[in-house]
Amino acid sequence: MWLQVSFLFYEHYKGYISIRSLFMFQEFLIAIKHFGILQLAIATTALVLVFFIVRKLSQPLHFKFSPIATSAIVAINLTLTTYTISIFSDKERISDPLNINQFQHYKFEDENPIMYLARSALFKNEHDISAEDTLLANSILQNPATRLPDKYNYSNFTELIAAYPNHVSVPVEGDPFKVVPVEARETENKLNVILIIAESLRAFEVGQNQRKQSFTPNFNRIVKESASFTNAYSTSLYTIKSEQSILCSNLDLNMEVPYSVRYGAFNGDCLPNVLTRQGYKTKFFHGNEIEFYNRGVFHPSLGFQELIDLNAMLATSPELNDEMIGWGISDKAVFRYALAELENEPEPFFAQILTVTNHKPFNWDYQDESINSLHIDNENPEYNDYVKGVTYFDLALGEFWEEFERSPLYQNTLIVITGDHGVPVYPNHLVDEIEQQDALFQTPLLFWHYGINPNRSQILTSHLDIMPTILSMLGYNKSMSVIGRPLLGEYATNVDRIVFNLGFNDYALKYGDSSCFNSPSYCDNFSGECYADERFLCRLADPEDVSKIEQSKHLMNFMKLQKFIGYPNSNLDSLTH
Fold first, then answer.
1. Which residues lie below 8 Å from residue 150, measured CB to CB, with a gap of 6+?
2. For strand 324-325 and strand 306-308, is the pairing parallel, antiparallel, or unpaired?
3. What is the pLDDT of residue 125?
4. Nearest 5 degrees, angle CA 354-CA 357-CA 362?
5. pLDDT per residue over 529-544, tens digit each?
6. How many Cβ atoms sit within 10 Å of the Cβ of residue 77?
7. pTM beyond cutoff 0.90
8. Rounded Cα–Cα distance for residues 264 and 102 (Å)
9. What 3-state class would DSSP assign to 287?
């Protein structure tokens, strides 16, 4: 009944208020708890001070404020003052889960109510969703046989569903990315897998993109022994969103607040889930707390059986309190702890190590004078601090690698290393907006195992290809639903891939040698053909790429719908049109 009432309201008023207003009201009540006495005292003092100053200045001019003008001054001042003093710097940390519903949503806003209302009014955020998408999502959850409108049909983006070697694409409306092997069999190569996701590591500083200057000699040494990719890109500027792309070959389209925070559990098939079914033990290591980004809920839904965070490590090794840097336990200590744990783990296992030391603002005491005193000539201080963080990660990686080479795991483990995302901090000479965009998203990517044939590839790839590549290298040969395609292993393919770089309110796109970016100057000084739509400008290497670019809009429509439903392939599989 409520669904029908909401739909009638939308049809009449061309707006969608029922669920949105209820959700905002719930958040508003929660936010009131964060409006502390100190904030109130500062805001009131500032308000009174400004009011008397304005009154005093107006007296020589014999100007009198009307009640309406006075009220406006009071309201504006209160809002701006409160907004300024109340930014909650640790906004993604969830400490008081409330309102668990069928999605396992966690509905919070860790900020005071004035700030919340200001943000809601001034900025486009995750609540600005269309009535059609929300109504359809709720309908699908209640009845999986709901008909999908044409705008979501996979026939609108079939050119973007690349061929998967020795597999047959069997798209259905609810799961257009499903592929089935020609001949299913059990996984043959049960290597251990260690996935290292390096905080804020860009290809620009690594030198993997053929730059002369590099700050990562240890990483570069490993590259020479690995299969590496110099044209790899992250899909997001959020760590947790990049993890979804890496582990699930899927996109988090929630603008601003990540899916893990807004919704909680992920219901699709991800790498830890797949490997668990193959007999793997799955573990997650991180120097921060699992409450950050709601990983305590999100990561078990991906298939991790054990989460080892800051608190878990300190419980067993309290001496690590002496090795805290910045946001948590130092990378050196986490690498050391993880390797010791994994050496005692029954094989096979899958482990993710997410580093944390190289995190903004980067101006930490790195407990190493050679790093603390590091100075890059002709660079700005913020970038100089960032290079210190990169240098520290590389030293930590080097120590880990030396221990790993002596470990019994050395000959039976696949190592994958990539960055989670870049940061908008650049050397002084990098001023071009387009070059900055590329540096922001381009990330290192390598795969290593004992006896691998070292190779450096320039194929365009992204985080979406990591899950299928790992499974291909392990010989996994069962049905799956992934956007990416394998780069290595039995099912490796050089097929053109679509690469999304998701920003906060927009996105850039690459396909083959064509690229699109939301900048009015993107086609300036470009001698080739340019294409434009309402999203961005595109530099075309091939005019036929226009159809793929247009289809990307329809792919995004479908992904947006999947987001509202929680990415549940099981709920969508039975949809028919």
1. 156
2. unpaired
3. 42
4. 135
5. 999 999 999 999 999 9
6. 18
7. no
8. 10
9. coil
Which regions of 62-169 does DSSP assign to beta strands (E)? 167-169
- What one-letter code names the amino acid at 19? I
Q: Which contacts qualify for 205-211: CB closer than 8 Å, 24 or more apart?
A: 205/386, 205/387, 205/390, 206/390, 206/444, 208/444, 209/442
Q: Which residues lie below 8 Å from residue 143, measured CB to CB, with a gap of 6+?
A: none
Report the Cα 284 to chain-centroid distance in Å.
17
3-class SS of residue 570? helix
Distance between CA 141 and CA 523 in Å, rounded? 43
Q: Which residue has 């080097």 as its token pair?
A: 398
**CA torsion angle 139 145 147 152 (round to 10):** 80
Residues of the chain with pLDDT under 50: 1-24, 26-27, 30, 85-112, 119, 122-129, 570-577
Measured CA distances, 73 to 44, 52, 53, 212 (Å):
13, 11, 12, 56
Residue 561 φ then ψ, to 5°: -65, -45
pLDDT for the residue 185: 76
Strands 507-511 and 498-502: what pairing? antiparallel
Which tokens is 234 given?
A: 């992250």
- Gap between the Cα atoms of 258 and 299, Å rounded: 13
Matching residue, tokens 């650049």: 426
| Alpha-helix residue ranges (DSSP H) falling in 86-216 | 113-122, 131-142, 203-206
CA distance 453 to 84: 55
What was the pLDDT predicted at 236? 94
Question: What is the C-alpha separation between 119 and 257, in angstroms, rounded?
Answer: 13
Collapsed DSSP state (helix, strand, coil) of residue 15: coil
CA dist list (Å): 377 to 363, 392, 425, 427: 17, 18, 16, 10
324 DSSP assignment: E
Return the residue matching tokens 């007296």: 59
Q: What is the reported pLDDT for 88?
A: 38
> Half-sphere exposure (CA, 13 Å, Cβ side) for 378?
3
The helix (H) or strand (E) run that includes residue 54 is helix 37-58
Structure token digits, residue 255: 């603008």
Cβ atoms of residues 164 and 177 within 8 Å: no
For 337-375, give one letter per residue: b (16+ CB within 10 A) or e. bbbebbeeeeebbbbbbbbbbbbbebebebeeeebeebe
- According to DSSP, the residues that pair with 194 across neighbouring strands are 351, 415
3-state class of 169 per DSSP?
Answer: strand
Residue 45, both tokens? 């003092």
Are the C-beta atoms of 325 and 366 separated by less than 8 Å?
A: yes
Yes or no: say if 137 and 565 are a contact pair by the CB < 8 Å rule.
yes
DSSP class of residue 346 equals P
For residue 154, which phi and psi values (nearest 5 degrees)?
A: -65, -15
* Cα 300 to Cα 304: distance, rounded to the nearest angstrom: 5
Are the C-beta atoms of 47 and 125 separated by less than 8 Å?
Answer: no
CA gap 414, 191 in Å, rounded: 6
- Average pLDDT of the chain to the nearest whole number: 82
β-bridge partners, 508: 501
* Cα→Cα distances 220→423, 446, 456, Å: 21, 10, 12
d(CA 203, CA 475): 29
User: What is d(CA 253, CA 502) in angstroms, rounded to the nearest whole number?
Assistant: 8
* DSSP secondary structure letter of residue 129: -
Structure tokens at 218: 């240890």
